[in-house]
Amino acid sequence: MSTQPLPLVGITVVAVEQAVSAPFATRQLADLGARVIKVERTDGGDFARAYDTAARGLASHFVWCNRGKESVALDLKDPRGLDVLRRLIADADVFVQNLAHGAAARLGLDAATLCAAHPKLVAVDISGYGSDGPYAHKRAYDMLVQCEAGLVAVTGTPEQPVKAGIPAADIAAAMYAFSGVLAALVRRGTTGRGGPVEISMLEALAEWLGHPLHHVMHGGTEPARTGVAHAVIAPYDAYPTADGGQVLLSVQNDREWRRLAQLVLEQPEMADDPAFATNAARVTHRTKTDEVVAQALAGLTAAEAVERLESAGIACARLNTVEDVAAHPQLAARSRWREVESPVGPLRALLPPINLGGSQEARMGAVPALGEHTCATLRALGMTDEQLAELRRDGVIA
């Protein structure tokens, strides 16, 4: 059987993007075969390029979100730079932007304006709080939106709320932008028209708040912060092991509790003890439940604890460090690691989690240097070397 091409081959995306939300969305499109032209500032480019130097001198955020793209550096404050961008958009299938509130509209780059001029274009506006409403003008960084969306309120310990350790608001917005583009392209295939797509970080993350939001809205109380424990299930927590590790286990029903008591805790009398026999009872007596489980695992290494729990049919996991994830045996066994090229040489990266059977493997292109593709892209628009030299001399391109 012949291998099918990647589904977005032939799709051109132009993105005026920075930080995480828009770049992570367009990276998904690049991985699936789209040509993504990343338009950056001439004075340093996407500011995520300067977040850190952890990736052999490159910024880890930038490496993560920008492989497989072409970098074109334009000064959009100069009419000549803006004209170049408009010419790129005229030939594009998708345009994505996450500029500060009002900036895209002032440049005529908001989705509504562009779609009116180019009916086949799918144009995406990503913002913190949406295009209108009392919060529309507010600056919106990931941690701020995590707070506004209530994620911080349900994360952490009883004493200390904490933000998620990843940019959850940015990622939520990125993935809804990605799926919104795919949906709009499917619709264009049947109607011939693209259209605007609007994504708000707040709305994306509020949707992800899920069951706590519905629990509170429909008569429940504010959920307790319980660290890595589960608020309404016990035992469901991480427990220290003899070698300094931690193993998390989850008992989802009373049958599993009986197996845990008999085969792991080696206290079969607890299986039917009214104080522990039901989940409601175990939650009521959570301190004692956790104490008994902790005692049983404290004398085992993490590997021994996992082996005993799995033998008993109890769901469990190691509490891994990020370094552990980079060496995870499951990722290695499924050959999920690849190398992508970059200005500093090959860098290790994960294959994207969308696996399309019978299709070519995801296209994991190089991480671009700032302005690496400016001249080639503008030559394709018909510009001469003399015109390019003039634009470069005037700081319009880089």
What does it look like?
This protein is of the alpha/beta class and 398 residues long. Helix content is 39%, strand content 14%. It has a 6-stranded parallel beta sheet with strand order 3-2-1-4-5-6, with helices on both faces. A hairpin with a 6-residue loop joins strand 10 and strand 11 (347-350). Helix 1 packs across helix 7 (168-191) and helix 7 crosses helix 8 (201-217). The two termini are 45 Å apart. The model has no long low-confidence stretch (mean pLDDT 96).
Multimeric state of these chains? single chain
The secondary structure category is: alpha/beta
The count of strands amounts to 11
Outline, from the CA principal axes? elongated
The fraction of residues in strands falls at 5-15%
The share of residues in helices is 25-40%
Q: How would you write the strand order of the largest sheet?
A: 3-2-1-4-5-6
Helical stretch count?
A: 16
Q: Which ranges are low-confidence, i.e. pLDDT below 50, for 5 or more consecutive residues?
A: none
**Helix and strand pattern:** EHEHEHEHHEHHEHEEHHHHEHHEEHH
Radius of gyration: 26 Å
Q: Report how far the terminal alpha carbons are from each other.
A: 45 Å
Profile the largest sheet.
Answer: 6 strands, parallel
Provide mean pLDDT, rounded.
96
